[in-house]
Amino acid sequence: MDQGIIASLLQHPLASALVIVDRTGRPLAANPAAREHGLPATVAAYAPMLEDLRLLAADGGIVACSLPGGPRGHYDGHLRAVHDGAGNLLAFTLSVPEPVPLAGGGRWELALDSAGHSLWDWDIPSDRVTRTPGLGEETASGMLARVHGEDIVHVRAALDQHLRGTSEQYSAQFRFRQPDGQWRWVLDRGRVVARTADGQPLRMVGTHTDIEQQKQLEALLHEQQVHLSEAQRIASMGSWSFDPGTGSFWWSPELRSLLALEPGNVPGQRRWLKQLHPRSRGALRAAWRRLWRDGRSASLELELARGSGEPSLHLRLWMQPLLDGEGQPKRLLGQVQNITEQHQTDALIRWRTELLNRVSALGRIGGCEIEVQTRHMQWTEECYRIHGLRKEPITLDQALALYTEDSRSAFEAALGRIAGGGLPEQLDLCFYRQSGLRVWVQVLIELDRRDGLPPRFVVLFRDITREREANERIELLAHYDLLTGLPNRVLLGEQTAEAIEEARDRGTSLAMLFIDLDGFKTINDSFGHATGDALLKAAATRLHQNLRNNDLFGRFSGDEFIVVLRDLAEPEDAGHVARKLIGSLAEPLRRGDTTLKVGASVGIAMLGDTQTDFDSLLRAADAAMYAAKEAGRNTYQYYSQDALARIQRRLELEHALHGAIEREEFSLAYQPLLHAHLGEPPAIEALLRWHRPGIGYCSPAEFIPIAEKCGEIVRIGDWVLNEACRQATAWDRAGLHFDRIAVNVSAVQLRDRGFAERVIEICHAHGWPPQRLELELTESALIRDTDILRHCFDVLERHGVPLAVDDFGTGFSNLNYLNRFPVGRLKIDRSFVQGMLHDSGTAEVTQAIVHLGHALGMKVVAEGVETHQEEDMLRRQGCDEIQGYLYSRPLSPRDLAQWLRQQHQSPSRTDADNEALLVR
User: Fold this and answer.
1) Distance separating alpha carbons of residues 387 and 366, to the nearest angstrom
2) Where are the alpha helices (DSSP H) in 372-464?
3) Is the pLDDT of residue 233 over 70?
4) What does pLDDT average to over the chain?
5) Cβ atoms of residues 793 and 822 within 8 Å
């Protein structure tokens, strides 16, 4: 640096202390303030330690530094680089702004104020060493004796070299024993200031500096450097820097080792870029341009090809610019980490995670981890999907808020038990999604206590909603009636068994009520199943409202219900309850514009010696219910042996009906119907008879309802049609004259698909005209207007099969139905005929029926006529045909053939003659 510039700089009256040092740290000059405080010597002494600060200052800017000395024990100053116009480094300036003035003026005082420094003056010929401050005199040999044994050799060597004149300055670092016996590191430096004429040293002066803290700091820095290097080696990291001025890179040994480069070998920029994968090359160039443009740090991943078939290296690169005063990068620092193993591990984890997610999705299994102490929770994607939530952070309390109270309590209790050392647990929990959808999950909870990790719960969720709903559906089907929601026969049987056991233990009374709805079948047939179902639900609700909470109530089947009354004070109380239940159905039920009314027949059976379980109570109550129906319906009856006998009789007949056709136990009897005006051929009604070998005849009024209920009526009805058509054809071919043959048909037959077609086929099979086969129906058969019934009547009408309504006036009379279906005759029930002579009201009813039939274009038939007075009244009322014992009882085929022959021979036979014929 130019001496004139230095002199001019130092002559300025500055309050600050200023020292100019060269690039190696050696003081070149100092201003008065710096010399007053002895800063040039201090700077020279600490030049090696200031090397790092000089490197930082050389890159630009002002670097703070601190030196020992002064009244405060240290000088705080700033180090700045001086460049020429071309930017070349010339020197450094160290300035200490306005240092505290010294109290006294000697160099000894300044040295004494400098922390850790002392001066010594060695008179070599006398071997006397004078030390300051206040340390007195000591021999040089005595001082050397206090040097640590491991350091004495190199101390003597350094001292001898300087005394011989082979070194300009003596300098040595060693451990020096203090008066208190402790060892401390010191820096001892000096110079021979006087020699003899022949060059022998006479006097030597120097400084003795305590560097114990510096040595400790150096040891700490060295240890940290070793740790840093080892950490970078373990983490596969290395450092680098780039000087934009020279365009040169510096790579740390760790980086060269990481990339398997020879020491000192740094590849050029082009070679480095060529080794990168094209995608990485483009990313690096883009990041490099952004860094120089914006002056911001950057981080990116690179893929470096290694050749020779070896897998590529995956590197993480960090770049940090050092900016100048104008905000422009003047140097670039960075690190590189080898993340190849991490990349491979991440790829494997991603693959396993995707596989696990696919498996979890297929199995509908989600998972989560919950830290025991913090309750911090992490969910898998499938866990979010199961709960119907977006993938965003969620706390355990937020998740549990979705669950029902019982499920929350069960889950929290399980966590507590497991945290306390309990075994893993499995729970079935229920929650509701935000959409309101109910979801069931099976949860498996266990505690994970891996070393190095906080204890946490591992929880697996499996969506079992479908399984649960299926089980609930099975449970519902197995134990509950789907229409009313009441317990079915199975569940009611289980509940009754428990109630019976409890009643025996407590010595209390128990009763079973068997309830059958009166009139339900008619309404169901008339208005359809939808109306019937609504009626059943309404009736069940009314019955249930009149029972106590501890009573059992269920649907047995169809229109039958069962009630089990517990804790009865007296057996009579069961009758009181039965009356309440019957009364609850007294008010009509409304469905739309239709008013519906049903009653109830109730059978009561008490728990006792013979009725000891559910089945025996059920049989007894069922028998009592039938007794209530026979007693007039809409009432109740207690169980008796007679009622049981009637039930057993019904079961016996039902069993006997099966196979009766094959055993040829059925036959037909025939009763004629005569026209009110003589001269027209009579009609014939076929009547079914059942003769049981060894037992005798069974009344149709008894076995026909049973056949309808068990379904045998369809097969029996087809047999009747076949036999009647066969017999009618035989009579007709024998030349016997009659109008038609009539057959009674059940409503069950009309509802059987294909019935009308079978009727026509039977007629054709026997060669009997369908127009001469009349089907007699009950009024209830016409009530239910269904597609099947309409189709049946359409087929019959198309083939000319006449229809008649039997027992008119005793059932559900409805002019609409009479007008809607192709009915040709009305048959007045025998109950009206037998009462019309004694009751004017009944006579008016028969007259009204005749007028009604004629008004609708129908013929009217009276049945059950047994006297001439009845016959005369019916003729006067305009009845078209008459049937009854007055003319003939039901006859066998042979007897009826004989009767027809006689009628043909004597067409004008009187009534007395007919009566005489019947006697024969």
Assistant:
1) 10
2) 381-387, 396-400, 405-419
3) no
4) 83
5) yes
